[in-house]
Design a protein that fits this description.
Layout: E1 2-10, E2 23-29, H1 32-37, E3 47-51, E4 60-65, E5 82-87, E6 90-94, E7 100-104
Antiparallel strand pairs: 1-2, 1-4, 2-3, 4-5, 6-7
Length: 105
Amino acid sequence: MRLGIVRGHVTLSPAVPELMGKTLVVLEPVTMANLTAKNALGGGKSLVAVDTLGAAMGQMVAFTEGREAANPFWPKSVPVDAYCTLIVDSVTIVNTQFQEFEVSK
């Protein structure tokens, strides 16, 4: 599971039948450097994910990639490579010096 920021929405025309009614979002994965800098930047290569949570533009989400991304649709076979699993409220990071600090949206 990785963290990403919602940067946009995707509309398919014509839609893949298995994705009818599903929301697709463009996610920008967040690098550790940007997460600790609290600068609201992503820094990773953007990807498209299925979002059933209703994440808004600019919100941070956790997402799952690969085969596990299709698990919420089981037993149906849905062609997805990434799935938004939760909307992030805050992140606490413990650095190598064992100091905690919190990153909030």
